[in-house]
Task: structure prediction
Amino acid sequence: FIMAKQVEQLEKEKKELQERLKNQEKKIDYFERAKRLEEIPLIKTAYEEQRVHDMELWEQQEEERITTLQLEREKALEHKNRLSRMLEDRDLFEARLKASRRTVYEDKLKQFQERLAEERRNRLEERKNQRKEERRITYYREKEEEEQRLREEQLLK
Result:
């Protein structure tokens, strides 16, 4: 009997505990929902503020980028103008350099052609003399052979 009462008492306490936990859970759940309902407008305003801030930051960076590009363009134009003033000097220098190199080239070409013509004359003269010598040798050989033949004929007679 006492044991049954104790078991009954324990079950009753257990149910009360579960009931309290359930109520506490409901309170926390309601509290969280209320907190969320309160937070939603705050989150929206925070998001909107962040968006506005990001947009301002982007506009500032874009403005800086455009300013930088404009400065770079101005520097490039100045550089181009400075170099364009040097263009005439460069062209004049190139023309002088080409003229001097052309003169050197023409001189060397002239020397080469003179040496070539001289070498051709020498070789032609050499070939002419060689052919003359060959003809002379051939003439004397034929003359010698003719004389030899005539002597042999005379001996045979």
